[in-house]
Model the fold of this input.
Amino acid sequence: MKVTMEKVSELGRSMSVTVPAEEVSEQFETRLSLIQKQVKMSGFRPGKVPMSVVRQRYGEQVKQEVVQELVASSMPKAFDSEKVRPATQPTLDFQDIDESKEFAYTLKFDVLPEVEPKGYTGVKLTKEVAEVTDAKVEEMLERLREVRRSYAPKAKTGKAAKTDRVLIDAQGFDKKGGKEIENTNLKGHPLEIGSGAFIPGFEDGLVGAKAGDTVELELEFPKEYHVKDLAGKPVFFEVKVEAIEKRELPELDDELAKSFGSDSVEQLRERMKEDLTNDLSTASEQRMKRALFDALDKKNQFAVPEAMVEGEFNAIWQQFTQDLQQRGMSMDSLDKSEDEYRKENRELAERRVRLGLLIAEIAKKEDVQVTSDELKAEVEKIAASYGAQAEQVKQYFSKPENMQQISGPILEKKVCDFIFDKSEIKDKKVDADELMAELTQ
Done:
């Protein structure tokens, strides 16, 4: 077997492989002979079909099988001989095969970069921490009361106030031309005043109105409004208040606690405190991990395989566009062009690939491994959250190709924990709300 390799870019390679004619002939002869012995054909006794007939009938099938076998058997040897590690599945190009001639094919692929991890010991990091105060717990309990809120009709003479829910009909008009603005018509729409669901000034403008009133509002869409054509645009709204309802919150008692799965208010309070503690710990770790990744990325700049970047970019872009669709938005409504978003997301994809390769190399160098027990425990944890579908989840993760979805994040966490143990970490107290914002980013 002859192998030649050409460097077409920093990580791109083109490899030519030539398999000797003797090996090609042997593969053809083996397969044709096997078919001749097994094939049943009218007019011939079993095993006595002439080879010329077998070639005519099964020649194309045998060609495909021989190509697959020759490539499968020679490609690993070719990689070994050139000491290369392909980053992705190579693309294959070959001419028609002839059983009496040598067989040549070409592989095109990216190789994994040679990575020598730098700056992952003695990293100086700040760990942001926040205290779970009694006031924060009570705030969370108040939010639970709001989740169970109800509304009761307000007296006809009652005026709309903050936290009231109003039932409105509304239409927006262009302030300059007086034309109706598309998608600003509402019929029987329920709106809680103070919810911030509408543009600034809209909800405040309804305070003091009574059922049956028509309120005129001169407003302006925010400059960063998600609908590009309306951003910063002056608007005139005509709003009719059909009805007003007063918000009513349930008592903070054992009955409310039971509706949230706790036996008593005190048990619910303790659960809220525990949940907040866990959330703050998760947010703190996420921020510190991001700071670590920033430091590692800065000190470890190397070329990454384009095919891997493309695959990561496609996954990011698909999620990005799906999120837009779910929010009822289009690319035209955003404050940047599609090209700008593509550029940003491609840079993100490149960073993720680079950090992934770096994490893998650190794990290899420091012998950080994911154990079978850790994988089993994570599968059990995930399956338990799916209730009746637990067995299907376990079956899904029984396939090695799907297990990577679990093993990858576990390995990343173990490597980060390894680095944290060797880092200089200083605690910094921050406000709980500031830290909790991390979980919504």
